[in-house]
Design goal:
With about 325 residues, this protein is mainly β. It has helices at about 35-40, 215-220, and strands at about 1-5, 10-20, 25, 45-50, 55, 60, 65-70, 75-80, 90-95, 100-110, 120-130, 135-140, 145, 150-155, 170-175, 175-180, 185-195, 205, 225-230, 240-245, 250-255, 260-265, 290, 305-310, 315-325.
């Protein structure tokens, strides 16, 4: 495998993986120049923070005080705001040992950044192992209580970027429920069962098989854009999803310590900017598997907490395990 990164946005730009014939396929969407990443509004390949996903109204109450964040998704706050972690330059340090090669990236988000309280020191480690595992490790500390939810927003296409849509990919998600959304794509607070709905991926199913179903949740999101409640004990590195692409024979298994995973089927990807090699990324040209805590958790005390307090350390790991069949 081969991984190419940018220190701008801690962006995953290329990820070359050998298919069943040993040919290297670049399986992530991206751009050929920095200017396109600066203009991009789809978070292609970017590290996401301080808070992945949405916060209702761009506001929350923490320890009796109300905070107001930037609102960059209508009335709501999305993926860290106008200038989230995907739009800053990270300090980068490469490393290599017997089993892995990678890069440690660091960034300090200042007090008041996009409205968040406290200074937040973040470290992300991207690594490739000799067993074809792409791992992402997150660490963070803060000097003031603050919500933190970090993820990676690579768009995958296991037949190769720029080859068309991902509707024939076969998806399994290890989740019995999802966080139901309202018309603003924000959680209602209900953990809805997947059983009997087109969001049931407990057995492998083509992404496109039910994506045009009349179910209200798909109608709202114009496809899949939902946080799945993963069926494992929090903090244990456990399976979250598996994707298989029949033409290339590539399989991707996702393992994470996070309690949730946002499956996004690229419903709003449009060919505003040309991608790598001049490819036009149309709707559903890639999918994202964003391991995370739940959306809008600061406004839902019943959800797993995302509040990081001084003296504590956020630690999280996600592995993307590739194989060819």
């Amino acid at each position: 495998m081969r991984l190419e990164l940018l220190d701008y946005g801690a962006i995953v730009r290329c990820l070359d993986v050998p298919d069943r014939h040993g040919r290297l396929l670049d399986v992530v969407l991206g751009y050929d120049d920095l200017a396109s990443y600066e203009l991009d509004r789809c978070y292609i390949g970017a590290a996401i923070g301080r808070y992945a996903n949405r916060i209702r109204g761009g506001t929350f109450i923490l320890d009796g005080r109300r905070y107001h964040l930037s609102t960059n998704d209508g009335l709501h706050h999305l993926h860290g705001g106008e200038r989230g972690f995907g739009k800053v330059v990270w300090r980068a340090r490469p490393f290599e040992d017997a089993e892995t090669v990678g890069v440690v990236l660091e960034h300090t988000s200042q007090n008041g950044d996009e409205g968040y309280p406290g200074h937040l020191a973040v470290q992300i480690t991207y690594a490739l192992s000799t067993s074809n595992v792409f791992s992402v490790d997150y660490r963070a500390t803060a000097d003031h209580p603050t919500p933190v939810n970090l993820t990676q927003h690579a768009y995958f296409n296991l037949s190769g970027e720029g080859t068309g849509d991902v509707l024939d990919h076969e998806l399994t998600i290890h989740a019995d429920s999802f966080t139901e959304i309202d018309s603003g794509l924000l959680p209602t607070g209900t953990l809805a069962p997947v059983e009997g709905t087109p969001l049931d991926f407990r057995r492998a199913e083509r992404i496109g098989a039910r994506i045009r179903d009349s179910h209200e949740q798909l109608r709202i999101a114009q496809g899949y854009d939902h946080n799945f409640v993963l069926a494992h004990a929090r903090r244990a590195l456990s399976p979250a999803a598996r994707i298989f692409e029949p033409a290339s024979g590539l399989a991707l298994e996702v393992f994470t310590t996070e309690p949730g995973m946002q499956f996004y089927s690229g419903n709003f990807l449009e060919a505003i900017l040309p991608g790598k090699h001049g490819h036009r990324y149309e709707r559903r040209a890639g999918f994202a598997l964003e391991t995370q805590h739940f959306p809008d958790s600061p406004n839902h005390p019943e959800f797993p907490s995302t509040i990081l307090r001084p003296g504590d350390e956020l630690r999280s790991r996600t592995e993307f395990r590739f194989s060819a069949q």
